Amino acid sequence: MNAPKKHIIVISPIGDLDAEVLGRIEKEVNRIFGYETEIHPLLKNVEFALDLNRDQYHSTPILQKLAGIAPPQALKVLAIANVDLFIPILTHVYGEAQLGGQACIVSTHRLKEGLSPAGNPEGFRYRLVKEAVHELGHTFKLRHCKDPACLMHYCRTVRDVDRKSSEFCRYCMVMLGDEINRPAET
Ligand SMILES: [Zn+2]
Ligand SMILES: [Zn+2]
User: Fold this and answer.
1) 119 CA → ligand 1 middle, Å
2) CA 54 to chain centre
3) pLDDT tens-digit profile of 94-139?
4) 3: CA distance to ligand 1 center in Å?
5) Backbone angles phi, psi at 55, to 5 degrees
6) CA 55: distance to chain centroid?
7) Measured in angstroms, how far is the CA atom of residue 75 from the centroid of ligand 1?
8) Ligand showing the shortest atom-to-Cα distance for residue 156
9) 131 CA distance to ligand 1 middle (Å)
10) Distance (Å, whole) CA 60 – CA 95
11) Ligand nearest to the CA of residue 149, numbered in listed order
12) For a tag site, which of 13, 31, 129, 165 has the least CB within 10 Å?
């Protein structure tokens, strides 16, 4: 077997991002999932995903692109964008993930609602970190959770994001542990 072991979670900023928040996301991903992280800006921009009619960016092709260019050591890729993302059935999304797959993305764009990142950087970072961990959770096969305090709870508004904790509930933790300890498919 010559294939390098996939053992890193790659964090991939797209465009300008606050270095502080990147560090925060790395720390939290490391704490919750137990994998090392590396920062690799894999995409300069996501103009290929722009929908001219909606003036928003379709997240699904971005995920496909990221999975195609992920470095060999990447178990997962978490992209962080600052543009407005959508999937066709919804007006917007905070992020999207390949369920049980390799790539996910989260956007800062809508998470600024109701607060200014300059005026309340902590509130903004807290939201972004939660939604980043939520999307990564999907790549580890976690689905939405009914518990409004659980990180895997589906949030329609930033108020929902603010309301949930920064932890998975016990049920989701067990599911995550099973998935992480599962022998790799060959
Ligand atoms: Zn979700
Ligand atoms: Zn849960």
Assistant:
1) 28
2) 23
3) 999 999 999 999 999 999 988 877 788 899 999 999 999 999 999 9
4) 31
5) 55, 40
6) 22
7) 19
8) 1
9) 8
10) 10
11) 2
12) 31
**Average pLDDT, whole number, for the chain?**
94
Give the closest residue to 9 by CA, choosing from 28, 20, 18. Answer: 28
Q: Which of 73-77, 100-104, 141-145, 178-182 has the lowest mean pLDDT?
A: 178-182
CATH number of the structural domain 8-181: 3.40.390.10
Question: Domain spans of the chain?
Answer: 8-181
Give residues with Cβ within 8 angstroms of 150, minimum separation 6: 164, 165, 167, 168, 169, 171, 172
For residue 144, the ligand closest to its alpha carbon is: 1
pTM of the model: 0.94
Secondary structure E strands in 43-179: 50-51, 56-58, 74-81, 85-86, 95-97, 103-107
Active site residues: 135
Terminus-to-terminus CA distance in the chain, angstroms?
A: 10
Compute the average pLDDT of residues 77-105.
97
- Residue 1 Cα, ligand 1 centroid: separation in angstroms? 35
Pure H helices in the chain:
19-33, 59-69, 121-139, 158-163, 170-181
Listed in order, strand segments (DSSP E) in 91-167 are: 95-97, 103-107
pLDDT, residue 121, reads 87
Q: Are 177 and 32 in contact (CB under 8 A)?
A: no
